Amino acid sequence: MTDWYMKNLAWIRARDEELYYALIDMVEPRPQADWSAVEMMMRPKEWLFGLGPFSPSATILLYGFGDGEHVLYLMEKLAERGHLIVLIPDVPEFLELLHLVDMEAVLSDQRVHPVILNVNNDRLLRYMAGCYSPETIAFAKVFVLPDYDLLYPEGLTFLEQALEIVMQWMEG
Asked: What is the span of the domain harbouring residue 31?
């Protein structure tokens, strides 16, 4: 089995040094995610087919990285003007995924913006402010991976507050 960790970290560092150093600062020797919780969330096919329609130029907020299949699916549906902000509420799970999966397609795509909640909260607001406009906010979508609302409810609270801040910014 190939360990993709170093290659994936190199992609993250090349694309986003702030995210790279935030991840490195959190690394303990090979963090182990709670994969029993992850298995509960591995229903990507049913979840993906249940997503409603969205504009190819939308800015999508995806709460949770899961196994990355969700991200790839949404990337396929987005046009070049679209953005996908992926909120990562569980860093050990994400770091473990970096060992298991070649993430080059996701990490090298300039439309994808990974954000670690409770570390990069100001970055989330910057991305949202940069990606949304009064014209595009109508096309915005928020998707929550299955069971992430139960496993990581605190991140959803912050996301709701961030959306309110962006809406106020656009109104005023």
From this structure: 5-171
The list of the chain residues with pLDDT below 50 reads: 1, 29-45
Q: Which pTM was predicted?
A: 0.77
- Which H or E run contains 11? helix 5-15
Domains of the chain: total: 1
Half-sphere exposure at residue 128, Cβ-oriented, CA atoms within 13 angstroms: 27
Assess contact for 111 and 32: CB atoms under 8 A.
no
**Which is nearest to 87 in space by CA: 60, 48, 106, 108?**
60
In order of 4, 34, 102, 115, 150, the CA distances from 18 in angstroms are: 20, 26, 21, 10, 29
If phi > 0 it is left, if psi is from -120 to 50 it is alpha, else beta; for residue 164 that is alpha
Q: 98: domain CATH number? A: 3.40.50
Q: How many residues does the chain have?
A: 172
